[in-house]
Write a structure and sequence with these properties.
By secondary structure, the protein is an alpha/beta fold. It has a single domain, classed as Maf protein (Alpha-Beta Complex), CATH 3.90.950. The chain is built from 5 helices and 6 strands. It is globular and about 50 Å long. The relative contact order is 0.16.
């Protein structure tokens, strides 16, 4: 029987994306929706890594099972790195994608396309109860579009055009996005690590 692996995210869109990225693992992936409700931890970290470790440790210890959690966000050069670790609550309301996107466009309304450089970054963490975190990172460079395009994905996907492409993440299929995204990169590294763990124990 496969071991359980918890996705430590209360964001249903992110949890679904993580489950898609973890599908090849010989683990039984569970989301928080499969378990009794529990309050989310307060994300008090100053970096993506601090918040990712905080979430992984909280959910792993609370439910007594190995957990994968990530913290990710959008870093915009013209805004001195904002929204950064505050990406999910940039406009004030946590997880309000529409307001966050509107707030970002307002902040960049006087900024030309060539100056709208940005990157999505992700820190993903695997942690077993009372264990040490295994940490991986991913990043993808791009630009912020002048207006939203596409309704796929979530968060800032309709505004982010990765380098070398003319479409936003919001216009791409899940497979296209996963192949280049910040989260896809970080989770691919975690999957390789977890597959190595399984091989060592076989």
């Amino acid at each position: 029987m496969n071991k359980p692996l918890l996705i430590g995210s209360g964001n249903r869109s992110k949890a679904r994306e993580l489950a898609e990225l973890l599908v090849a693992l010989p683990w039984t992936v569970q989301s928080l929706a499969d378990l009794p409700p529990t309050p989310a931890p307060e994300e008090t970290g100053q970096t993506f890594e601090e918040n990712a470790v905080l979430k992984a440790r909280y959910y792993s210890n609370h439910f007594g099972m190995p957990c994968i959690a990530d913290d990710s966000g959008l870093v915009v050069d013209a805004l001195d790195g904002a929204p950064g670790v505050h990406s999910a609550r940039y406009a004030g309301d946590y997880g309000n994608d529409e307001k966050n996107n509107e707030h970002l466009l307002e902040a960049l309304q006087e900024v030309s396309w060539h100056e709208r450089t940005a990157r999505f970054v992700c820190c993903a963490v695997f942690l077993a109860p009372d264990g040490e975190p295994h940490i991986e990172h991913g990043a993808v460079e791009g630009h912020i579009a002048m207006e939203p395009f596409g309704d796929a994905g979530f968060g800032y996907d309709p505004l982010f055009v990765p380098v070398g492409h003319s479409r936003t993440f919001g216009e791409m299929s899940a497979e296209e996005k996963h192949g280049m995204s910040h989260r896809g990169q970080a989770i691919a590294k975690l999957c390789a690590f977890l597959q190595g763990l399984q091989a060592d124990k076989a």
